[in-house]
Each structure stands twice: as C-alpha cells, then as structure tokens.
Design goal:
This protein is an alpha/beta fold. The chain has two domains: 110 residues, Chitobiase, domain 2 (2-Layer Sandwich), CATH 3.30.379; 311 residues, Glycosidases (TIM Barrel, Alpha-Beta Barrel). The protein contains eleven helices and 15 strands. An eight-stranded parallel β-sheet has the order 10-9-8-15-14-13-12-11. A seven-stranded mixed β-sheet has the order 1-7-5-6-4-2-3. Strand 13, helix 8 and strand 14 form a beta-alpha-beta unit.
Length: 433
C-alpha cells in the first residue's frame, strides 16, 4: 500500500477484477482510463445517475464519511468493486488506492471496505530537469525517467508537481535559453503536461528561477545556458551572469516572455515558483549598483508578483533569502524585507537543512501574514517533523524535494507522500503490510 487509509477493514474472500468492466455513474470532466488500467479494469461506459461513483461488477455503493474534496469510500466484494466520492478528485484518489492494492495482490484482491481522506491539502513534489551531459554528478532526469517518477508520485498520493527546467525548456521566443541537446522538445514537454493533467490527475506547476541561478545550469557545471551561446546579451545579467540585471528593460521583457511561455504550456497554472534563492548581486550598470541591494530585491520581487497576478497565477518563492544568511555570500537582506513584500506570495520554507524537529522560519513568516509550504529533502525525521508542524499549524502543505537525486530520493518521496496523507509519521512496516 502507498499510504495507510484512514480506516480499512478486510473481509473474507477475494475479487477477481481482470475481466470486470467499470461504469462511471456521472459525466466526468476527467479521463479515468489510465488510472482504471492500473487497477486492471477493462474499458467502461458512462450512465449518469447524479453521484460520483465508479463501479465494476455487482457491489453495493458506499458513502464517504468525510465531506472533503479528496475523500472517498471504497468497497470490494467477491462480485464487484465500487468507489464513491464527493468530487472527481476523490474518485481519482480512490482509484490510486485500488491500483496500489492491485499491484500488491495481482488480479485477486482481498474483499475490503475503506474510508479515506488526506490530512494535508497541498501535497507537492519538486522535480529538477537537468542537461544530460553537463559533466556534473546527478541522476537521470530524462523524459522517460521523469515520467516514471511522476507516475509513482501519482500513485503515492501527490496532487501537485513543480517542474524546474535547468536550461532544458524549449522557449519559443528565446530558443537560446535552452541547451541544443535538451531532450525536452515542445512535443515532449506538451505531452508530459498532458499526461500529468489528463491521466495522472495532478496539477503541474512551473518553477523557474527569475532572479538568481540565472545561468539555469547547475553551479558545478560552470555553464550559462544563454551567455555561453549568446555572449552579446551579457548586459541582461550582472557581470558573471549569476543574477539577472533586474533594472534592465530588456531583462524585464525577457522574464515576461519566460513567464508567458511557461504559463501557456502549463495550461494557466495556479502557482508559479520564481525561486529567488542565492541572490549574490544586482544591477549590471554602475548606476544600478549605487542603489541599495535591498531596494533592488524588493522592487524586483514586487514586479514579478504584479506580472504573475496579471497572468492569474500566484507567486511562490524560497524563503531563505528573506530569513537566513545561509545563501548570502556577499549580502544578507535586511530583516524588514519580509515585512514589506506582498502577503499574497506563498513562501516555500527551505533552509538547506533537512535534519531537525523545529523550524523557526515557519513562525517567522506565518506571524507576518504569509501562507507557507515546507520542503524536506532526504531525511525522514525532517519530513516527519515538517508534516507534524504543517498539520498542527494549519499551513498549506508540503513540497517534497528531490533535487539532483530523484532515484535515490524515491523511497523518501513515497514515504513523504504517505506521511502527508496521514498527517503524521508512518510505520513503514504498516505500509508494507
């Protein structure tokens, strides 16, 4: 099982589902074919009866006990299966659970009744996508590997995924902002987004650093996706190319084009992660560099936020530059910056330290009126503490990171999903059983 259901009772007998056709008792907006196929169910039909139900064979239809959007009830008898939900999102989650049971038991699954709903609303996964041959130590982020990871994330219970393209996204207006050897063509990216939305029933969200890490390459590669190909555009970055020259009108237009392309490709996403960590400098001209770095940073973030609001999407950013000096080699922003930025910005808690049980930056931002999500990495104790705090404080949710180690991170990704669903630490033996 990928997570421990809220309540689960097993009954005598098994159900053979390989030959069952499913029936949708409503006219869905979503396509359930991929999820149904993972459960071993044959193609079905629609007979609208007003309830959000999927049934196969002869089985009484259960009623969800929780009224949440993702709540569902699942019943398996010797002669059939039925999943009922309050919303299509709940039906998707019920099919994911049934798929997990099917993968464990094959075509003969135990008779059971399940009542289930997640305890944390926003359950996200952050995936980086790197240039394949940049000489750095990292794990496979090819389209095939990423698709497999996202399918695992879907079945584990995640409902959002941030995709961060490190010089690998094929921008229409600025093709030089993508490495020529990137396997992510327009066709590949659009097919991936369609798969996430239409088959996996997750929300894909763009993540692109619009302040720093402006080479859009791993720092250890010493490469710059634009300036290595177009050195004539150097005035759009500070000397060395680490940060964007945020006051340059050409830079602002470039960043607007990037936002436009990502929002269109991701089908008008509700959130857009602008990162903005490791801001080591601002301004490309002598005049710019006479201005306070705090003022340049605030102005830039406000400009990004305003433009994203115009696009109908909410800005997300890493919070560490506003809180900790960990990422500040040359400049630490004044503490007051966090008091003056727009409060609609969603702050992503990340402190370069995934080991711990107390995260003071959560109180720091939430006491100032910000909504937050937290990001653990590979440490399960850190994940447990963040999940516990998230539920206790009523924060928006968790964004599990995998960075350059998605294969290594997979067990933690699955564990984190289970802990987020349950809202607490999970006994791994209970998951296995």
């Amino acid at each position: 099982m990928f997570h421990v259901p809220t309540s689960m009772t097993t009954n005598p007998g098994t159900c053979r589902i390989a030959d069952l056709r499913y029936n949708l008792h409503f006219s869905p907006k979503k396509n359930y074919g991929w999820l149904a196929s993972k459960c071993g169910l044959a193609a079905g039909e629609i007979t609208d009866s007003g309830r959000i139900v999927l049934s196969a064979g002869d089985c009484p239809i259960p009623v969800p006990e929780d009224n949440g959007r993702e709540a569902y009830a699942l019943t398996v008898t010797k002669t059939g299966i039925a999943i009922a939900a309050n919303h299509e999102d709940g039906l998707s989650q019920g099919l994911r659970t049934l798929a997990a049971v099917t993968m464990e038991h094959g075509g003969e699954i135990p008779c059971m009744t399940i009542q289930d709903h997640p305890k944390i609303a926003f359950r996200g996964l952050h995936c980086c996508i790197f240039r394949p041959n940049d000489g750095t130590d990292k794990e496979d982020t090819s389209p095939k590997a990423l698709t497999k990871l996202l399918e695992d994330a879907c079945l584990s219970g995640y409902n959002h995924v941030f995709l961060e393209f490190w010089g690998t996204f094929p921008y229409r207006k600025h093709p030089y902002a993508c490495w020529p050897d990137s396997p992510y063509t327009r066709e590949v990216v659009e097919a991936l987004i369609s798969h996430i939305i239409d088959d996996l029933h997750m929300t894909p969200l763009p993540c692109q650093n619009l302040t720093s890490h402006a080479g859009w390459s791993r720092i250890s590669s010493r490469q710059h996706v634009v300036l290595d190909q177009r050195p004539d555009l150097s005035d759009m970055w500070i000397p060395g190319g680490w940060c964007f020259a945020t006051e340059n009108p050409k830079t602002k237009e470039f960043l607007h084009d990037i936002i436009d392309d990502l929002c269109e490709t991701f089908r008008n996403p509700p959130l857009f992660h602008v990162s903005s960590d490791k801001c080591f400098g601002f301004g490309s001209t002598e005049e710019d560099r006479t201005k306070p770095a705090d003022a340049l940073f605030i102005t830039h973030l406000c400009n990004l936020n305003t433009y994203l609001q115009h696009k109908g999407t909410r800005m997300v950013m890493w919070g560490d530059m506003l809180y900790s000096s960990m990422d500040s080699l040359y400049w630490k922003p004044a503490e007051g910056i966090a008091d003056v930025l727009p409060k609609n910005i969603l702050i992503n808690i990340w402190t370069h330290n995934d080991v711990g049980t107390h995260w003071a930056d959560i109180d720091y931002f939430e006491s100032r009126g910000y909504e937050t999500i937290y990001s653990p990495f590979l440490n399960k104790a850190g994940t447990d503490s963040m999940v516990k705090l998230c539920r206790e404080k009523g924060s928006l949710g968790i964004l599990q990171t995998s960075w350059h180690r998605p294969k290594t991170a997979l067990p933690v990704i699955r564990y984190s999903a289970a802990a987020q669903w349950s809202g607490c630490a999970v006994d791994e033996k209970e998951l296995e059983s």
